[in-house]
Amino acid sequence: MKFKSIKGTKDILPGEVEAWQHVERVVHRVMRDFNYREIRTPVFETTALFSRSIGELTDIVNKEMYTFLDRSEESVTLKPEGTASVLRAYIQNNLGEQSPLVKVYYMGPMFRQERPQAGRLRQFHQFGAEAIGSQSPLLDVEMTALALEIYSQLGIKQFELKINSVGCEKCRPQYKELLVAELTRIQSKLSPESQARLKQNPLRVLDSKDEGDKAATKNVPLMKDHLCTECVEHFTKVQQLLNAIGIKYAIDGRLVRGLDYYTKTAYEITSTALGSQDALAGGGRYDLLVEKLGGKPTPGVGFAAGIERLLMVLEKSGNTPKDEAGPVLFFVALDNSSLTWAFAEATKLRAKGIAVELDYLGRSVKAQMREANRQNARYVVVVGETELKSGKAKLKDMRNGGEQEISLERIDGSLQS
RNA sequence: GUGGCCAUAGUUCAGUUGGUUAGAACGCCAGGUUGUGGCCCUGGAGGUCGUGGGUUCAAAUCCCACUGGUCACCCCA
Prior knowledge:
alpha+beta; elongated
């Protein structure tokens, strides 16, 4: 027990991995139903890609990235989120030239060097989707519908969808000035943290958890009330569409996301089944980002969802799938030549797609039976000299203990799962 | 990065006001049928009590440091 996994990283062990596979299957299926295609990008990228897209002043870039110099002195970073890489790939491979709208999804590990706590790891996993090339509010809503459909198919019901509009390059700067002016006026009532935020990222003061801040900023102007006509229209349309497809939501004028690139729609799905880190998924529109990363001006929307947090909710609500899959057949061999025969036969059956297991430890019959039981094998066939000579054996059904004589020649025909 | 709590078998934990061979349950291994599991019974293996220092005749137990875990802040998935 000398080596240990790095702080904030976890092994996903047999017994746990089944739940992951279940989630992954549902994600792939729903993504396909919504016509999103999978994209896989490298786990690391040039550091500048993230600092430029996420924003120099964000916490993610400032203090949470796994950044290091490789052997050629290039600064590389383990990806802290998925959107930047996807857009880089979109631009680099000219995906926009092949079709005006690109709908892709991803699933994989992300890295952030934070202090771990409930629902937060240094290596965590997300799935997410991006729709690049359209400014239609249909897609803003499709993102939430997509995420909610995945949750619904997984049996998750404890969640809340919050939406907001963070404006665009036309209306946000004006609003920001207004907000800063107002916050400066009441600065003395703000917490030290918020006073710092006032300089760095004033919008963030709005979603402070500090009770004093909440009270002090109660009547501060909100972005959603100072949107330009284009943004108002978009936001209104998003709400209409959400209503039209029957998705429940709450407008949260204080919802601000931690990444700078969002424009117009921002949304977050939270769950009370989680601890203090209660965001299950989040996302929004990023109409300026592609251009900022060196592509043609191209609008886009996306979301990202945390798999560990999803699993936590699943666990709490008792929706974790049971892991009961065992081999269909377990050979119990009495001696060496029977073992060799069983091994050969197992190989043949496995090639036919039948899950077969046998004993590799030279154990007693009793121990082999115990092993078959522990592994949840459906059937057991005991082979010894007698069986090999006669070509017949007993097929034992481990569910009810019943035995039936079968021919060793065609075992597969006798198995029914 | 800051703070609270925690650290004893593979796992979950117990361990009396410091007192000599550190326990339980589950799990694991073996036996209880000359070739048959689940339940039950019997036995067995398995712990430098996180690490290092200190106090003491004596430390798993008290003190300090470190490491690790966990929860919270910050922020976010």
